[in-house]
Design a protein that fits this description.
InterPro entries: RpiR-like_SIS, SIS_dom, SIS_dom_sf, SIS_GmhA/DiaA_subfam. Pfam families: SIS_2. This is SIS domain-containing protein. 42% of the residues lie in helices and 12% in strands. Strands 2-1-3-4-5 form a 5-stranded parallel beta sheet, with helices on both faces. A two-stranded antiparallel sheet has the order 6-7. The mean pLDDT is 92.
């Protein structure tokens, strides 16, 4: 069987986007890493949020091998993931005014903490209000989004603003509107989205920059090891115990 032409084209598209983000967002990623390092060093807590498929990149940096133990997932019932039934309900909840405020008010997030909000379009009420309210509470906010949506679509928030308008630092994923990299005759809809690949890479590069910053400052970053290597569970148990007041996924 010969190689798939379309599969190769997807890899090319994803690599092209990753290269653009690496080159064009380098300063912003370094700034985001420094902000994370500042929060870790000052005793603050770290949170990540994403809705729908954007939640995948947020989940990817929480409680995982090689990850920063202090990163917590800020969850919104019915919005994180596609396990809610019916699935379109999750999309509808992203447009509900006031939901973000209720979530933040009942969360442990407080002034001095940092929140990373992942939203590809950044146009729905939930991520916009999440950023607005988090900053009002005194949190530092990093937005991971596609600026193309803010420049070429309409906001679904009453303010007319997008996620990027309410962040301290914005990381642009460069994903085109529609989030599909391939087209082919005979298929009416474009396909092969690359947002998860690119956004996850942004998140991991941001944390790599944070680790670099912490080491330069003489601060040992609390990292997790794989539970599938010898000593991994013992290592993670120690790290979690030492940082139990900043880790909420154990409770």
């Amino acid at each position: 069987m010969s190689d798939s032409k379309l599969a190769g084209q997807f890899f090319d598209a994803a690599i092209g986007l990753l290269t653009r983000v690496r080159d064009e967002e380098a300063k912003s990623i370094a700034a985001a890493g420094a902000a994370v390092a500042d929060t870790v060093e000052s005793g603050g807590r770290l949170f990540a949020f994403g809705a729908g498929h954007s939640s995948l990149a947020a989940q990817d940096v929480v409680y995982r091998a090689g990850g920063l133990a202090l990163m917590n997932l800020l969850t919104v019932p019915g919005v994180v993931g596609v396990d809610v039934m019916p699935a379109p309900l999750g999309s509808a909840l992203e447009r509900v005014d006031g939901l973000a405020s209720a979530v933040l008010d009942s969360s442990p997030a407080t002034a001095g903490d940092l929140l990373v909000i992942v939203s590809l379009s950044g146009r729905n009420a939930l991520p916009v209000e999440m950023a607005q309210n988090a900053r009002a509470l005194g949190l530092k906010v990093i937005g991971v989004t596609s600026v193309a949506y803010a420049e070429n679509t309409r906001s679904r928030h009453a303010s007319g603003g997008f996620l990027r308008d309410h962040c301290d630092i914005v990381l642009d994923s460069k994903i085109a509107i529609g989030d599909a990299e391939l087209t082919v005759p005979g298929v009416e809809a474009p396909f092969a989205p690359a947002s998860t690949v690119v956004t996850s890479a942004i998140m991991q590069s941001m944390l790599a920059a944070a680790v670099e910053q912490l080491v330069a400052r003489g601060v040992e970053p609390p990292m997790l090891r794989s539970g599938n290597v010898d000593g991994g569970h013992e290592w993670n148990g120690r790290v979690m115990t030492e940082n139990r007041d900043r880790i909420f996924y154990r409770h």
